[in-house]
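Table 4 source record.
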Amino acid sequence: MLAISESEVRELLPMNECIEILDRLFTESAKGGTANLRRHRLPLIRGAQQIMAGTSDSLDVTGLKTYVTPGKSGSHMMVLIYRVSTGEPLAILGANALGQIRTGAASGVATRYMSNQGSATVAIIGSGSQAITQLAAVCAVRPITKAKIYSRSKENRERFSREAEAQINIDVNPVETTEAALLDADVVCVITNSRDPVLLGEQLTPGLHVNAAGSNHWMRRELDHTAISTFNSIVVDDLEDAKVECGDLIWA
């Protein structure tokens, strides 16, 4: 059984490859070739152990992801993968980086099929650990030349700007308001842990593609009711999961 570290995951799974894998898996899922175990939160004395799993018929693998929140040193995510046909354990992976890359790649798949092909400017709302892979994924599928980043902390958005420019090699400008980030944007990625909407329907413009990727709990919302009712179409990665976890849609 392979033991794959966080640094090895980052080296072995480039964003463009993860987008292609997810694209194939979403297609397989639509045909009934996958199964998901929705996130289960096992209560602990302090926080919870979170557990989720999935299987792919075509890949002949099944996997389990688990981590504990909150942790004093952050969440330490792990994934265990088995070969379905033999029951053989194949690998155990450090999965913080894997989660970042996969979450970004899902937005990459959505952007590939739902945004305008000539999209050149992207807005990022939120500057946490997931934001950089959101930007990387959009840049992998569209000819992005400029990005704007807004978060409540000036220090964080300036840090993100420096790091993103170094990693992705495009102009990334920190801005002081959501409205400034959205100005002339073709794509916006909202990636926060907010309990209250940070993107409002009145801020949207025709043709804007929105990736709302931050909410994974019914008590969290990134989009208000007006935004939800404005969209021409709403697509989720898993409908049953969305009924339980997508606060944006549950509240609306």
